[in-house]
Amino acid sequence: MSAKLANLIDADKLTEAQAAAELKRLAKVIAEHDRRYYQEDKPSISDAEYDALRQRNDAIEARFPALIRKDSPSRRVGAAPVGRFRKVRHAVPMLSLDNAFGESDVLDFEARIRRFLRLGEDETIDFSAEPKIDGLSMSLRYERGELVTAATRGDGMEGEDVTANIRTLHDVPHKLKGRHVPVACEVRGEVYMTKQAFLALNERQKAAGEPVFANPRNSAAGSLRQKDPAITATRPLGFFAYAWGEMSDMPTDTQSGMIRWFETCGFRTNPLTKLCHSLEQLIAFHRKIEEERAELDYDIDGVVYKVNRLDWQERLGFVSRSPRWAVAHKFPAERAMTVLRDIEIQVGRTGALTPVGKLEPVGVGGVIVQNVTLHNEDYIRGLGGNGEALREGRDIRIGDTVIIQRAGDVIPQVVDVVIDKRPKSARPYRFPKKCPCPLHTDVVREETATGEEGARARCSGEFACPFQKVEHLKLFASRRAFDIEGLGEKQIAFFFEEGWVKEPADIFTLPARNRTIKLEGQEGYGETSVRNLFAAIEERRRIPLDRFIYALGIRHVGDTTALALARGYGSWKAFHDACLAVAKGDPEAIAEMDALDQIGNTVIAAVAAYFSESHNRGIVERLTKEVTILDAEKPKKDTAIAGKTVVFTGTLEQMTRDEAKAMAERLGAKVSGSVSKKTDLVVAGPGAGSKLADARKYGIEVLTEDEWFRLVGR
Ligand code: IVH
Q: I want to staple 695 with a disulfide (CB 3.0 to 4.6 A). Which of 41, 395, 605, 700 is the partner?
């Protein structure tokens, strides 16, 4: 049965064979839409269309439970999304701002306000001037001072409920401070990721063989869209308050007063915000902030001017979807023109080949740029590919004059090719068929999650490829893994080239072998530095389990996943035995790993692939002889619910399901989706049905949400 045909038949009329074909197609299509939505922040279908696909999948699975696939969208857990977020209607719409691109636009903006309010030339208009943060706007609803909902902007009318994730941000108070708290108030502002945190996150993504984010804005969006708040909690996100939605009571009558009030409530507001009294001061503010822009640790793309008096704001009102009382004065995009001298291929730890453009050095926004990522073969051929900054249909050739841009001010990208300047001799770039590593292995195109040929190319040399080996060693000694002081990327590359360190275990035997190596005689080394290095190596012979797992360099196992695995298994022996069993396809071991929080099919498949390789098993065996692996911290034992199995059912009113699950697990409980004799506790909200009935049948203790909070002491 062709997948195309099955696609046209109603879910309740499919035969078993048709259903199998259709489930396969849906798994593939939904995974692709998830990738666009979660990783690229660029959905290509409406939410309604997406929901229809998932409903169809659910309906077919309900009819044919035996056909539920391992990669079914309904089974994906952890970092991979299990669905989209609940929709929230904004009590007051979240609108956008008109843009001003030059000083004359700002003059027009001020003149229009004067005309509208019938103000004379000598009447002062005060403006609150604020940096325009390049993040995601967020609306935080507080009722009686308690945070009840956090919603993204969405289409302005309806956003997504990301409350559980927002609660993990330090900058967002769960309870408003101060004595005069309105009954209901919505604080609005921007969620952002600092440039430093973005770079560190991309390093971690790279190390785990995961796709990197194009800019801090996308990484903030991706971090907020995690279905598991524990993952969001590991991503450092900030929040600046600068606006509001519904307010049952106004604490002040100016914009600057509101900013001060946000501070008294416990929010951070942007320290560069300034009250300006004239047009000249606005323009001077724009200039000053533009100068400081490169030094700021977060991205901004302009400044915002807002009429300070709220009664004037009210009179000015809105035109279509933007207020008349505010404007965004944008900065010109930071772009520069230069020549692409060459394209080099870099091989990563997992064998991924990344083309890097070598540029005639050029200054962009105060930084000299010499290298530019070209992402992958499709990108160079003008077919898209991740990043997608390049003007559609343009291919990139060596010798081309290119326009580069520092996207989100961090990673430089090629955004256009100046075709008029293309030298006659320039030929389309031929992506190498052989890897540049000494093995010259065949390059293969990676399969995507949907089983299609992906844009990324890989070296097929795997464990024999010296480029991959050295990258693995770098990861092994890096900060989040063994963190060996004095053994940075340069030293690893040097030791590897000399043949002194070929695999992780060699690092620990290095001191004993130094009698023949005589490191202190090498350039850059003296007796003290060698002594320090060997002491640092000794110090790391005892290593926590999560760091050890991360250091193995299993694909898709970044530090967060490694921690989840370590907590799940507790000891190296338990983890190792499980991995070997998973590699042999033992269904019980697979199910056990699958049941762990944050672990899904991708990780299980990567663990199986890793431990199926005898070469890897050898590396691990030799390494474990050199080190002592410390057991993971066990889940808390001294709480009222430690070790218990809890089921949440009905509509939870004070917390989302994710939040409830995260809270229970933090306190050492296991959360289950169904009630059985093994269940210890059921927390039931309004509308609870069969699960509540089951709980009563088995005589299981049932709590309301309030009783739950009392039990866990919150
Ligand atoms: S005020 C009615 N202030 O810019 C409009 N917006 O294009 C209320 N933004 O969606 C928004 N910094 O995400 C305002 N200091 C600031 C801002 C800011 C960034 C973003 C916000 C909004 C977009 C408008």
A: 700
